[in-house]
Amino acid sequence: MRRLAIPLALMLSVGALGSPAQATDKVTRTAECQGDWLPGTPTANDVMKGEISLVGLPAYKLGKDIKWAASPFKNRSWEFVFQSLRWMGTLVVEYENTGERQYLDRATDIAKDWVASNRYGAKGTPSYVWKDHPVSLRTQPLLCLSRHVNAGWLKESLAAHAKLLSNPRLYKKGHNHGIDQDIALMGIGCRYARKDWANLASRRLTGTVKLDVDAQGALMEQAPRYAVYVYGRLQVAMTNMKACGRKVPGEISRRAEALKDFIAHSTLPNGYMVPIGDGSAETEPKMETGTPKQKVKTYRAGYVFGRTKWGEPDSAYYSIRYGPGMKFHGHEDHLGVTYYAQGRDILMDGGFHSYEKSSYRYWTLSPEAHNVPTVVGARFRPRTSSKLIKSSYGDDRQAFKLTDKAYGVSRTRSVLVNHGEDLMAVLDTASGGKKVSSIWRFAPSFKVVSNGGGKVVLADGKFKVTLLQYSASCGRTGGQKVERGGKLGWVSPTYLSKQPASVVKSPAAKSLLTIIVPGTDSPKVSCSGGKVKVDGVSFSTRLL
User: Fold this and answer.
1) Where is the Heparinase II/III-like C-terminal domain (predicted)?
2) Which residue ranges make up each domain of the chain?
3) β-pair type (525-528, 337-341)
4) Confidence of residue 25 (pLDDT cuts 50, 70, 90)
5) CATH fold label, 331-540
């Protein structure tokens, strides 16, 4: 068995912690254990019974001798969380809260067995055990345990963790994983008075935050729900810095504060975050963001978020995507839109299913899983950036124009959203005489009740929504196809879920003007001379 070679200079100093505390009615609570890092499941009692439920999957029986290479669900997220040992940490916290020695003894046994069975680089140790994120997340429960257990094997393991955390080749700069690495390294450095580690963590963190959160407060990882995670981790990082006697750099505190506005703007009127990129529709921020001054916000990172009013669940809301090419937690969703009106989701993205390497996961990343225009007969070019080239803001109406060359020619989309009399209108074109087609994915509860003559009506019980399509010259465009299931008709609103959804695919045309009217199956619509009128709302076929 090959062990990680750790120079004496890197070994942690042995503090005078003494032996593990005996059972007592009162145990000192420590900052390392009393944080918000613990998972919701499993509980300490679950772990004591030997059953742990991770990432929402069924309970797994640990057994007396834990099989550390276990992967009962063949799920990467489960494996990573299992190896993080945070579930072990619940026992140490319970020991601090109750003074019952049985919890500490079991936690010590689990951690000691893990260390003996998972030496870095040893034969039989799965490679993912020592990936950057499990290493950083595992540091917290091990540090927590170190407050009550003074043992050479534990200090040696934390030294091995610190060596990897400080390795520049393994550092995930500009990513939430990098933030977690810095928190972990600073934790070990401060715990054992290693200023070199703490200094490195502090220095790296500032650079990572500047890359991960831009000056407007937008998260650059291309999935808004991760902004909540990053905000929470930055609070931990700043708290730990202060506890370590360090000054928090102003750039970190300013960008953390700006994140709150971004989270507020990317939250739907129903209180859940818009599921863009690797984001679940069940993500609820559960934090105080305050109410931004603006109802519409354009972020250079590639987002437009708009709403009718703040604080009203029935108000309308929309999102539009553009900006840098796909990276990190993003999808190929550029020029895509989502739409929420009259208290319900109307248009949705394909959503986030999981991080599993499956054909369905890769499909959820593709343009076909989003409400986007495609250029007929042209090859899609992944990771292409797009631009917002024109915008118009009004209290009751906003309009935007975006373009890119994701299909080799200029693909252009204009979007108009009208409030009060709710509707969304979208004009799609391509250069070089190319034809475009568009995809419209409705919330799973909507089913098609009629389709003909360029008009598709969908219903969710008594609530109706109408989709109409014209050319830019006002000719009605018929021939829409609807899929529910099949290749296109799916949505994953929550982790590991897959639901059939009604998807309307337009015919190919040189220009496509799509109008979405929520709340009715019979809007009064006229289109002539480059002007459109929908139930009294008028606008140009060019939109802006």
Assistant:
1) 324-502
2) 28-166, 178-295, 331-540
3) unpaired
4) low
5) Beta-galactosidase; Chain A, domain 5 (2.70.98)
